[in-house]
Design brief:
The protein is an alpha+beta fold and about 140 residues long. About 45% of the residues lie in helices and about 20% in strands. The strands form 2 sheets. The protein has a 5-stranded antiparallel beta sheet with strand order 3-2-5-6-7. A two-stranded antiparallel ribbon has the order 1-4. A hairpin with a 2-residue loop joins strand 2 and strand 3. Helix 2 (about 15-20) crosses helix 3 (about 30-35). The longest helix is centred in the C-terminal third of the chain and has 20 residues, at about 95-115. The protein is elongated, with a radius of gyration of 23 Å. The N and C termini lie far apart (about 85 Å). Pfam families: S4. Keywords: DNA-binding, RNA-binding. This is S4 domain-containing protein. It comes from Crenobacter oryzisoli.
Length: about 140
């Protein structure tokens, strides 16, 4: 009974930024608010304000860190709960989830193949660099 009271409000009114925070899409409400203002969150295909009330059945489209999410609101929450409970607040579109996972794998592969520097130059390499640079000055 208590768990259900946390998941749903009596008046069915939860702000969009608060719901996104409670569903663990954002670490803070301020970050959720910023994403909404920048147009990275759409409700039923429309750009909205953070103060808009979310209702069960609303379809949210989110763009977070180059990744796309499309979720349908199943339940409302005003409190941030553990991740296992947060996933019960929404259902995710399967095709969008698979596309996001493919993109995550691609981004991970790009990062792994990106050439990283060898770090700090050795004492000998630094002397060679200084000798090379001073050769142009004279």
């Amino acid at each position: 009974m208590k768990k259900q009271a946390v998941m749903e409000q009596d008046d069915d009114k939860v702000r969009l930024d608060k719901w996104l925070w409670a569903a663990r899409f954002f670490k803070t409400r301020a970050l959720a608010n910023e994403a909404i203002e920048l147009g990275r969150v759409l409700v039923n295909g429309d750009r909205v304000k953070a103060s808009r009330n979310v209702r069960e059945g609303d379809v949210l489209e989110l763009r977070l860190n180059q990744l796309e999410y499309q979720v349908t609101v199943l339940a409302l929450a005003i409190q941030r709960r553990p991740a296992k409970e947060a996933v019960l607040l929404y259902s995710e579109d399967e095709a969008v989830r698979l596309a996001r996972e493919e993109k995550q794998a691609l981004l991970k592969a790009e990062h792994a193949s990106f050439p990283h520097g060898d770090g700090k130059p050795t004492k000998k390499a630094r002397r060679d660099i200084e000798r090379f640079k001073s050769g142009f000055g004279h």
